[in-house]
Fold this sequence. Notes:
This protein is α/β, with parallel strands linked by helices.
Amino acid sequence: MKTLLWLLRGKALALAGLTCLVAAGLALPLYADELPAYPLTVENGHFTPETVTVPAGQRFKIVVTNKGPGPEEFESIELKKETVLAPGVTRAVVFAPLKPGTYKFFGDFHPETAKGQIVVK
């Protein structure tokens, strides 16, 4: 009888732990959706806007949309971020809190014209 109670107790603890993990997993996407979002479009080898201004010390995301006509990349060497977008694709890039300053980004497919900056104030 003690063995049966011990097994049931173990299963109840495991179920409680699993419930907590599932609840935590469901909460994560909600937190990510609450981040301030800043739109950025790339079209014909140019980013619009060229300057994205964000507050210092706060997580945020830049939502990049490639309107084409070809592929483009959002890349920032100093922030160690990059993502390639096919035409018509929208993708969010999440950033950790940044210190005040100016951080450059560019498009690797059009490095001469696809340039921009994130200004953190």
